[in-house]
Amino acid sequence: MLSAKTKTYDTIVVGAGISGIATAHKLQQVGYDHYVVLEKASRVGGTWRENTYPGCGCDVPSALYSFSFAPSYEWSNLFAKQPEILNYLEKVVQIFQLQEKILLNHELLDATWQEKQQCWKLQTSQGDFWAKTVVFGTGPITEPSMPKLKGIESFQGEIFHSARWNHDYDLTGKRVAVIGTGASAIQFVPQIQPLVKQLYVFQRTAPWVLPKADMTLNSSAKSLITQFPQIQRLWRGTVAQILNGINFGLRHPQALAPINFLGKQLLKLQIQDHVLREAVTPNFDIGCKRLLFANNYYPALQQSNTDLIPHGLVEVQGNTLIASNGQQHEVDVIIWGTGFEVSHPPIGKRVRNNKGQLLSELWKNSSPEAYLGASIADVPNAFLILGPSILVYDSFIGIAEAQVDYIVSGLLQMKEYQFTKFNVKPKVIKQHNEQVQKHLQTTVFNSGGCKSYYLDENGKNFAAWPWSLATLKSRLKQLNLKDYDLEF
After folding, report:
1. pLDDT band at 6, cuts 50/70/90?
2. Which of 304, 320, 336 is the last residue before a domain boundary?
3. 136 in the same domain as 168
4. Average pLDDT score over the chain
5. 156 and 84, same structural domain?
6. Domain range holding 251?
7. Among 11, 167, 365, 470, which residue's Cβ finds the most Cβ atoms within 10 Å?
8. Mode of pairing for the β-strands spanning 119-124 and 127-136
């Protein structure tokens, strides 16, 4: 690994998760060598390093959830599990010799634009770094969302978030409360249910949970895929087309009406008890909130030691949990399945614009805006990967790679034309976001009758891309300098 030196890099990449690894590979590929990647942890992997809860895995098929430049033939399931994804990311770093560019245990503390020097000063846990440009690849799902709950400080038992799982604590024979029924909870609930004495699942809103077309890939299947790579290419293309179909439905909710009907009919087969079935039946259009996939979640809810509490948790009194309908339950453990801080990206607490203002302060009363999810107003020579208004129902890896192509094309143009500063034009970002918000109004995210993490506290959709994936990738092929103010 590199050692910290007082010099100015052409580019510094912050974060060595999916986005950071994709950026480093692209820079290597185009011969852009004067860069470094800063990673806060002692190993790469991002969200797949942080999330180690039981049952953790991907809800996008493995064939698509891999870099286009590094297909893997070693997945043990059609939907890969966390340990294999983390191992895959570490292997990619080794295969492409990216570790030489990655500084581990270098946490970003503050990033400030220096107008006089026309570069960025990055304060880290290991000293200061300087760079002409910065790429923030810190991801949208990194910081756990911890609810502020009345009386939580009085709880005497064990408490942790799914993204900070306490593997040293034995849940066997314990009374456990799971707060939330999102993507993480539906994966770990079936894993812990057989261990615990009693499981209380607090559900504020019933999610759509569809069957997961998963299967184990044995050594023979892996060998066949390795011998005939076209099998994986075909599967990758098939999955991509399926996701394109889902995206069409999300943009045109009327097309999802049959799926709404079939989904509710399927619940009649999956859950016999009519009270439980009514409690887990969503009251909004499919796709309005994140689609969830599982085969073992509903069976876990129907076990004798599991109680679904179809109400939010509102108060804690000692080890007594009180639901919004007044129900009380004594527990030994609270596990937060409450997701992540998405509407206000945590990186905003560490980045200042060209006026010295922390982005988190500017975003305090509204969610952030960006141009093509990458360029933020008054933040020159810097890019954000997987930023606002770019979410499409697809592999995060595919979206990140498309954005990296856009960003690197800008960095190469900076070298070619020798300008020292570029900043997205206020008019460009304003018009872009006006169009985004206008076209989101008819999507299921905004019109499907739910309150999801796609919407901020003001009801503004800060996350979703309102057009097709093909349109997104087309817009991201090349950075257009006409969209930016340049200084030479």
Report:
1. low
2. 336
3. no
4. 93
5. no
6. 152-213+236-336
7. 11
8. antiparallel
Query: Are the C-beta atoms of 195 and 347 separated by less than 8 Å?
Result: no
Residue corresponding to tokens 């989904």: 263
CATH of the domain at 159: 3.50.50.60
Q: What is the DSSP string of 411-425?
A: HHHHHHHT-SEEEE-
| 208 and 192, same domain (yes or no) | yes
From the DSSP assignment, how many helices (H) and strands (E) are in the chain?
14, 19
Based on the fold, state whether residues 259 and 358 are members of the same structural domain: no
H/E segment holding residue 35: strand 35-38
Answer for the pair 463, 391: CB distance below 8 angstroms, yes or no: yes
Whether 162 and 45 share a structural domain: no
Question: E strands along 324-376, which residues?
Answer: 328-330, 333-336
Give the C-alpha separation, 89 to 101, whole Å. Answer: 15
Q: How many structural domains are present in the chain?
A: 2
d(CA 484, CA 488): 13
**Quick check: 374 and 387 in contact, CB under 8 A?**
yes
Confidence of residue 343 (pLDDT cuts 50, 70, 90): low
Tell whether 404 and 385 lie within a shared domain. Answer: yes
Q: Flag whether pLDDT at 143 surpasses 90.
A: no
As a 3-state breakdown, the chain gives helix, strand, coil percent values, each rounded to 5, of 35, 20, 45
Q: Which residue has the higher pLDDT, 360 or 177?
A: 177
Residue among 181, 229, 201, 207 nearest 71 (CA): 229
Q: What pLDDT is recorded for position 422? A: 97
Give the amino acid at 4: A
Q: How far is CA 47 from the centre of its chain?
A: 8
CA 44 to CA 37: how far, in whole Å?
10
Residue 229 in domain:
no
C-alpha to C-alpha distance for 249 and 255, rounded to whole angstroms: 5
